[in-house]
Write a structure and sequence with these properties.
mainly beta; Immunoglobulin-like; 1 helix; elongated; disordered N terminus; 8-stranded antiparallel sheet; Jelly Rolls
Length: 402
């Protein structure tokens, strides 16, 4: 989404020279790099933060602190299943710098593995920002209902599940207990936005910062967090069950801190030959050069209208003038892969765009995963009528991945 790219660029400006960090789990068949507490465990290809057992609780954190102060983006897929007595209580995403570090964990049940009971408030995780997915109504904590997403914080103190500690809440029209759901959380240093199930508009958008805090829904102010040196914190999940219990699973997870929003890459082999518009079509790349972040988009402009095209790639540069009678030049050599399953049309704007999946990069021998240290070259072939039916190429762009 375009908003994400603007957010990523803004993050860089806010964060200055802070290092970009990224990690991801397409599933949890391998849980290396995770610190698990309580009932948290690997369950097949899922990360089970908490099981459907009365009193179970768990927390899981990436075992290295990550930069969050200037901005981050994270996306994960979650699911609850096997409900007991209707199911409960919920799971959370947490950013924390609690004194217990990677071992931080709150109480079970309505505390969802991060908060504390009325009889044990000190068990709550301190110095934390929590996004909870609450699937059980607890009137004692001022819940609006049993199906909501809330942003909770106690500043540098205990983080409570009481909605007196909420700075934003939304109750989706559909139940969060059925099926799997995608939560996309984006923070740019002053604004926190949460997207649900791939929606184009955030379900929550709230002003808040690690430095200055924000405002509770009740009207009082809350401070920010005391982060580690360099603006770092631990990130992860928690969950809790009570007599109303369910399995709480994370199915995949991707995290990017201080992400670089582009432009990236170095153009070569240009300007391209003129097309029927009288201009040279030009390719550009946006996103990150971190291979593990899997965040690269290719754009092309100055194209003839309503024409089909295809992106191509190789690890080798080349120069073949007018291949197959084309009016352009092929600037790739060696083993050339074609994004033939992702054909594009320039439409009425005369533009192409393709979000790459770096884990499915085409080659003649089949798709490969782009690795850190590799350089890949990209170009676009497209149809044209100039004046008869023909084709052309853009210039090329090279991206070296870290």
């Amino acid at each position: 989404m375009l908003f994400l790219f603007r957010l990523l660029l803004l993050t860089v400006l806010l964060a200055g020279s802070a290092p970009a960090q990224a990690f991801g789990y397409s599933d949890f068949s391998n849980v290396a790099g995770l610190a698990m507490n309580g009932g948290a465990q690997q369950s097949g290809n899922a990360l089970r933060v908490c099981s459907n057992v009365n009193g179970d609780k768990g927390s899981v954190f990436y075992d290295q602190s990550v930069y969050v102060s200037g901005g981050f983006a994270t996306k994960f897929i979650f699911a609850t299943s096997n409900p007991v007595n209707g199911g409960g209580d919920g799971l959370t995403f947490i950013v924390q710098n609690d004194p217990n570090g990677l071992a931080a964990m709150g109480d079970s049940g309505s505390a969802m593995g991060y908060g504390g009971f009325a009889t044990s408030p000190a068990n709550a995780i301190d110095n934390a920002l929590v996004i909870e997915v609450d699937t059980f109504f607890n009137s004692s904590w001022n819940d609006p209902d049993g199906n909501h997403i809330s942003v909770q914080t106690g500043g540098t103190g205990d983080c409570s599940q009481d909605h007196d500690s909420s700075i934003a809440v939304v109750s989706p029209a559909f139940t969060l207990q059925k099926g799997s759901h995608i939560l996309d959380i984006q923070y740019d240093g002053s604004l926190l936005e949460i997207y649900l199930d791939g929606g184009s508009k955030p379900v929550i958008s709230v002003a808040w910062s690690f430095a200055g805090g924000g405002t509770y829904l009740t009207g009082g102010s809350t401070g920010g967090l005391n982060l580690m040196s360099g603006g770092n914190a631990y990130v992860g999940f928690s969950a809790g069950s009570s007599t109303q219990a369910q399995d709480h699973d994370i199915l995949s997870w991707k995290f990017i801190s201080t992400p670089v929003g582009g432009p990236i890459g170095t153009n070569y082999c240009g300007p391209a030959n003129l097309n029927s518009t009288g201009a040279s079509a030009a390719i550009s790349a946006w996103g990150q050069t971190i291979a593990a972040a899997n965040d690269v988009r290719l754009d092309v402009g100055s194209l003839p209208l309503n024409q089909f095209g295809m992106f191509v790639t190789s690890q080798t540069k080349g120069f073949i003038p007018n291949p197959g009678g084309s009016q352009g030049n092929l600037c790739l050599g060696g083993a050339i892969g074609r994004y033939s399953k992702s054909l594009v049309n320039s439409g009425s704007a005369g533009q192409f765009s393709l979000q790459l999946d770096l884990t499915q990069t085409p080659t003649p021998a089949g798709p490969v995963v782009i690795q850190a240290g590799e350089t890949w070259h990209f170009q676009t072939w497209y149809r044209d009528k100039n004046p008869t039916n023909t084709s052309n190429f853009t210039d090329g762009i090279s991206i070296t991945f870290m």
